[in-house]
Amino acid sequence: MKFSYNWIKEYINGKLIDAKKLGDVLMLHSFEVEAVEKQNKDWILDIDVLPNRAHDCLSHIGIAREVCAIEGLKLKAPLASPKEDKNLQIKDVLRVEVDQTDDCLRYGAIYLKDVQVKESPLWLKEKIKACGLQPINNIVDATNFVMLETGQPLHAFDAEKIGKQIFVRRAGKGEDIKTLDKEKKPYLLDESILVIADLRKPVAIAGIKG
Amino acid sequence: MDLQELKNRAKQEIDKVVDLDEIEKTFKKYLGKKGEVALIFDSLKDLAIEEKKALGQEANVLKQEIEEFFEQRKKEIKNTASEIKQTTERIDITRPGTKMARGHLHPLTLVLKDALKIFQTMGFEIAQGPELETEWYNFDALNVPKDHPARDMQDTFWLRQNMSTNYKKQITNNNKSNKLLMRTHTSPVQVRYMETHQPPLRIIVPGRVFRNEATDAKHEAQFYQLEGLMVDKEVSACNFKAIIEEFLKRFFKANVEIRLRPGFFPFTEPSFEIDAKRADGKWMEIMGAGMTHPNVFKAAGLNVSVSAGHGWCGFAFGVGVDRLALLKYKINDIRLLYQNDMRFLEQF
Lengths: 210, 348
Hints:
The structure holds two protein chains of two kinds.
Chain A: E1 2-4, H1 5-10, E2 12-13, H2 19-29, E3 32-39, E4 42-48, H3 54-57, H4 60-71, E5 74-75, H5 90-93, E6 95-98, H6 122-130, H7 138-150, H8 159-162, E7 165-170, E8 176-177, E9 187-188, E10 194-197, E11 202-205
Chain B: H1 3-16, H2 20-31, H3 36-44, H4 49-88, H5 107-121, E1 125-126, E2 132-134, H6 135-138, H7 165-171, E3 180-182, H8 188-196, E4 201-210, E5 222-232, H9 237-252, E6 258-265, E7 268-277, E8 283-292, H10 294-299, E9 313-320, H11 321-329, H12 342-345
Parallel strand pairs in B: 1-4
Antiparallel strand pairs in B: 2-3, 4-5, 5-9, 6-7, 7-8, 8-9
Helix pairs in contact in B: 1-4, 2-4, 3-4, 5-11
């Protein structure tokens, strides 16, 4: 995965060693660093996180945490502070049902209102691009940002289109799904694939594509 | 008829002849059935008895003399011929002969032979296993469960599952997954060996492995690995490091600087990757290793009680033989080893 040096730095209290040294330090303590390259005012580190550390290190906070442990620095992880509407009850607007807890231990959802879909601000677009992704719009970019930041894949759905219910279930034989990207052909699904669905049809392949 | 004249003429003509074909012709001319001597004998019948007698005797003498000329000349010709032959076609026994083209070993064979010899002197026994493996030995027994992302670390050539049941029986093991694949590493031999041998043990496993991936200067779709496994009551990563350093020292006939980096293999815990320093000062990964995961011992049916000194423990490593060859002979492209270009091979 590609990491932005400047982005990692944001989560660290104290002075961080330079990008080249960071590459060497990670190499000897944690992961193979395949490349450290300058990109504009940033450095991009291509870090090969192996499956045993994917759960905690495939994210900028994860790598920052790792670096802090090696270098004896303090982690400065961001806290989410959403503005809550006390008049609104979540169960009135959204319900999540997980078919089998074997497939999905926990599915979290949040309902956002008064959202305007538009172009992302420059700082966000730059972060998304630094990690090798394409900026699309503020909503998609925000979900990708959080994924790159925390390692948690997430997806935004249009509340007007999917209704009040989200299901986490296995796909049925013969079901298919059309994804956001420009591909014309829908993907064919079967029982081996976990999907996120509304009342009628799958709207995302769980954790992968929507 | 002047016999004396005939004799001189024949003698002269015979002396001029230089090869054996020509001498046959000349022989016919004088001594053939219709040759000149025969003509003399023919002419006798018209003569009186006295004359016949005298001339007949002379003619006989003449015939004998001419025959002798021929014999002599033939000998001379033969002698000169062999003399010529001896001077022109003489064998010079002091001259060095043309060298016979001799076969020679492939660089990979050289490296493998060398490496095996070194490990054997350190008490490692050579073990082998099939290149066509089952899912159980290649993955499940090595602590790589079916849906584990670690399976993606090694792109696998899976086989169509319709081979003869006989062979299947030979390589599979009751209810364990017998889906067939080309082994992606030599590690399955660890389990195969431990199923039939009791520790303490030290084995070294040379063999070809297969990966379903694109080739470049550092990667081939099939290459050689040298797997090592040491199991005993008290084996640590220190033992591993010492053995590998000793191996590299003997293999490269020089002190080779190595470093251990953290790595991950499902069948070892902890795992490390070993880099060797190249002549140009850059590090090159040459092997993966680690302390054998207890689940591997379990899969092989060994006791792995955790308390020190009771259960078995050990280390395993897998050397890229091709990488060793690249380092040893300063070759810059792994693919050269498999292209069979004579200009390349003849250098070894």
